Amino acid sequence: MRRTKARLLIALSAGLVLLLSACGGGLPQNTLEPAGPTARTIDRLFDPVFWIAVFVFVLVEGLLVYAVIRFRHRPGAAVPVQVHGNKRMEIAWTIAPAVLLAVIAVPTIVTIFSLYRTPPNALTVEITGHQWWWDVKYPSLQLETANEIHIPVGQKIFVKVTSYDVIHSFWVPRLAGKQDLEPGKINHLTMEADSAGTYLGQCAEYCGTSHANMRLRVIAEDPAQFQSWAEAQQQPAARPPADVLAIMTGASQPCGGCHTINGLEADGFGGQIGPNLTHFGSRTTFAGAIFPNTPEELAAWLRDPPARKAGADMPNLGLSEQEVQALVTYLEGLK
Amino acid sequence: MATVVQPTDRSGRSRAVFRRPRATTGVWSWITTVDHKKIGMLYGVTAFLFFIVGGVEALLIRLQLARPNGRVLTAEAYNEIFTMHGLTMIFLVVMPLSAAFFNYMLPLMIGARDVAFPRLNAFSYWVFLFGGLFLYSAFLLGGAPNGGWFGYAPLSTKLVGHGMDFYALGLITLGISSTVAAINFVVTILNLRAPGMSLMRMPVFVWMTFVVSFLLVFALPVLTVGLFELFFDRHFGTNFFQVGGGGDPVLWQHLFWLFGHPEVYVLILPAMGIVSEVLPVFSRKPLFGYPVVVFSGIAIGFMGWGVWAHHMFAVGLGPVANSAFALSTMFIAVPTGVKIFNWLATMWRGDIHLKTPMLFSLGFITMFIIGGLSGVTHAIVPADYQQTDTYYIVAHFHYVLFGGSIFGLFSGAYYWWPKVFGHMLSERIGKWHFWLMLLGFNLTFAPMHILGLQGMPRRIYTYPDHMGWNVWNLLETVGAFVIATSILLFVFNVIRSRRRAQPAGNDPWDARTLEWTTSSPPPPYNFEEVPVVRSLDPFWHEKYAEGEDGRLAPVVAGGAGGEGPLAEKDGPGGHGSMNEAEGHGDGGHEGGHAIHMPSPSYFPVIAAAGIPIIAYGLLYSNILVVDGVLTLLLGLYGWANEPSAE
After folding, report:
1. Are B404 and B365 in contact (CB under 8 A)?
2. pLDDT at residue number A249
3. Average per-residue pLDDT for chain B
4. Residue B546: pLDDT above 90?
């Protein structure tokens, strides 16, 4: 009897461990697995507070459960002694939490100020939120991209954020906490990645229809790789063949009205409403980092953008299948 | 349309617009009632129906999020549903459910015959009902509000369609209702307490009503200002929140949260008041440290004004502001913690009867502790940079507002049901309801802590497959349906208990406060004779005498041996014991009951109807605005010329 109980217990806890580990693997936005100093600083502050909270929880709930069991009504029980209060105890349980909180407050405030500091020798990245994608500029490198932020490993990145339309919030959980993007205001945060990899993030402030579809990626690479990426990005785009250019400029709403393609400004490609397409083909995702950048996905997008992404500003241009394929070939070639 | 007004001055019949309504049963008796008990029931039933609607919205949300890439709702529909779920649960459920208890119980608990302004009380109910219907009519008129209950500008000023107009005008309407009701309660508490009921002899629930009413009176105008500015920005080209015109979107956030955080205490303090009533009754001990519980409630009421920017830590207010609001947020946990310890001490060495109301109060405490502790972790500002706008926050405030407020309100419902309806609810079904709701609640909301820390933001209508959030989301959806089942059990309990009504008697729980001295349900005039109060927990002290050592002995009915404060009351007035009081009319009239109760009136509902008409007019037609104003004026004119009782 006892043995079956023990076995049951083992089976149950094994199941629980499995369940938890199933949830533990593959969590690309886990705040509890920091991958850089900013997120780690936060995690290290949260950890002790979490355990203090667990302690208080166990203590108070334990007292409660004990009281309910120990003092529950038994038949024939007399009316209990009428205690109206106890000043000393009440003072004690007013002061104790206050002291505990005061202790927690010290590292909290220290960390608030340390996270706010502007780091020296940081690489500045300027991010502008749009419904529902991210414009990314590197002012010192004079390059512009969208939704995917390449950074060199081990380098502090000073991220300056603002918004083109409504309030968004920049969040890459494994690298740093959130910072809101507000129109007319520039906020900042500092982040850094310990090692190479792709870190997922997404908009964290409700910003309208496709808030859920406003995702982003930080791609951390070793400095040499980053350097070569940057150099490639600084080049102007390859010029499209005349027929493709004709599709792009002749559409009911010409591409250049919203998009910029560096090198084609003279042909009218200087729009600021949609993402810069200069090196579109070098990105791993598009449309707010929700679709993998494959020819199939891009073709599906070009056929009818609002059908693919709720509320998307890019209209259905009514392109023929040949036009779609020609555009896909050109855009995917913009490495 | 205003030609019915025919002022006459004959024979004190006054300048009546209509003949005075006389129905005491049927639909018209409810429409014209000014009885605080009937109004309380109207509030309760209406809010419960909205609770069902808000619950269905929650189920839709959970169905959509049960699996990645859900297709139950479109993005547009999801955004409307989550906005309306929040608005409904806050403005149309928890606030009016609390108001239901304020209305019904408060006059009884302070030994009054009604609230100070009975017709105003009816008016606030009708404005609430019309405001709720106005808000929901948006679904039929082109789309519900879809900017979140927090309506952040400039999204809320840019969203096309009338959704956010219904939001602004609907909340202004509901704000009128709450402000009027709050003023009514403040005046009632200050002026209509039974003789001898000093402030520090008021039940804690009455105290919390008092604090909440003050919070509402001061907080709602701030929201109203914001809503007007929002409406002006949308329609009249103002630039309050438009950066291009020199405005500031963050201004909205300050206005909203300066209302919004006191609002949190508006939602939780009534439930804390209920718990403070229930625990002593079912532990058969007085509330431990009554003055401390009262003062901590007042302290929360004051400190609640100094924490609003903790909703805005990621806004970029700078390290000084963030530090200051971190401190204030941490320290508001102190009075909250004090309440919990006092409740624990109330139960300590008590004689705990685990009846359904007590179970729900215990549920409140256990769940509220979790919500309180997760609340403290938000005060760790850098941690909040990670937590804010994630499911961790959703978990936190559901532990406070569902695990807290809703459990507390159910506790109150089970506790006062026999008083209101004269019969008991089934204990057996009640316990099933409790355990099922506790289970479902934790299944639904506990995993949200984990999801939030694992990076799942709030207010997303979909999420991709590869985020590692699938298992918890599915579990949460299952939990939501368990909650729904428990609510159905409650409905079943209500219907079944009505059929097999077991008479409750005046005092089924051996309770402590004045409402239990009168019959169940109470007569329209509440008390045949206005009770005289000589202590806290007056009814208890009438039943039991307390010795020096705190030991009790029952007072023999009518006996001379009583030592309790109330037992010595056979003074000059020669009153009998309170619950046996017979026959002396108010003010000592001879024979019969010469109790003057306010008469029913048509005018509150007429005046209230004017407000949504104005609101529709602002959206659709200026002529309707004129109609609405005339209706409102007609109602107020008739009201002003009608004596409160005749």
Report:
1. no
2. 92
3. 91
4. no
Structure confidence at residue B586 as a pLDDT band (50, 70, 90): very low
| Angle CA B573–B579–B581, to nearest 5 | 40
What is the spatial distance between Cα B297 and Cα B269, in angstroms, rounded to a whole number?
A: 7
Q: Is B431 a catalytic residue?
A: no
CB contact under 8 A, B550 and A182: no
Residue bearing tokens 């509901």: B174
Three-state DSSP class for residue B18: coil
Q: Are B465 and B514 in contact (CB under 8 A)?
A: no
- Residue A145 pairs in a beta bridge with A136
Give Cα B233 to chain centroid, integer Å: 31
Cβ proximity of A209 and A221 under 8 Å: no
Q: Answer yes or no: B311 catalytic.
A: yes
ipTM for the complex shown: 0.92
Give the closest-approach CA distance of A237 to chain B in angstroms: 32
Query: Rounded distance, CA A272 to CA B231, Å?
Result: 30
pLDDT of B382: 97
Between CA B179 and CA B609 the distance in angstroms is 17
Catalytic residue among B46, B156, B178, B224: B178
Residue with tokens 């502050």: A45
Picking from A20, A56, A84 by the largest number of B CB atoms within 10 A of its own CB, the best residue to mutate is A84
Contacts of B93 (CB under 8 A, 6+ apart): B47, B50, B51, B54
B453–A26 C-beta distance less than 8 A = no
pLDDT digits (tens, 9 = 90+) for B460-500: 999 999 999 999 999 999 999 999 999 999 999 999 998 88
Q: Quick one: which H or E segment has residue A168?
A: strand A168-170
Q: Going by C-beta distance under 8 Å and a sequence separation of 6 or more, which residues neighbour residue B37?
A: B103, B104, B420, B521, B522, B524, B526
Q: What mean pLDDT comes out for the span B260-268?
A: 96
> Which tens digit of pLDDT belongs to each residue from B284-318?
999 999 999 999 999 999 999 999 999 999 999 99
**Rounded mean pLDDT, B45-53:** 98
Best residue of B352, B361, B470, B475 to probe chain A, by most A CBs closer than 10 Å: B352
Model pLDDT, residue B587? 39
Give the one of B318, B347, B552 whose C-beta lies nearest to A68's C-beta.
B347
Phi then psi for B128, rounded to 5 degrees?
-60, -50
Task: Identify which of A56, A77, A97 has the shortest CB distance to residue B351.
Answer: A77
Query: How far apart (Å, rounded) are the C-alpha atoms in residues A207 and A167?
Result: 6
CB of B352 closer than 8 Å to CB of B344: no
Q: Is B310 known to be catalytic?
A: yes
Strand partners, A157: A123, A191
DSSP β-ladder status, A123-130 and A157-163: parallel
Regarding pTM above 0.90, the answer is yes
In angstroms, the CA B60 to CA B480 distance is 10
pLDDT, tens only, B598-634: 889 999 999 999 999 999 999 999 999 999 999 999 9
Q: Which residues contact B199 (CB under 8 A, 6 or more apart)?
A: none
Spatial distance between the Cα atoms of B445 and B480, rounded to a whole number of angstroms: 9
Spell out the alpha helix ranges (H) of B33-162: 36-65, 75-87, 95-109, 118-137, 155-158
- Long-range contacts at B579-582 (CB < 8 A, ≥ 24 apart): B579/B506, B579/B507, B579/B517, B579/B518, B579/B539, B579/B542, B581/B527, B581/B528, B581/B529, B581/B531, B582/B528
Residues of B in contact with A166 (CB under 8 A): 152, 154-155, 158
Query: Which strands make up the sheet holding A157-163, listed edge to edge?
Result: A143-146, A133-138, A123-130, A157-163, A187-191
Distance CA A211, CA B84 (A): 17
B577 an active-site residue? no
Chain mean position to CA A86: 50
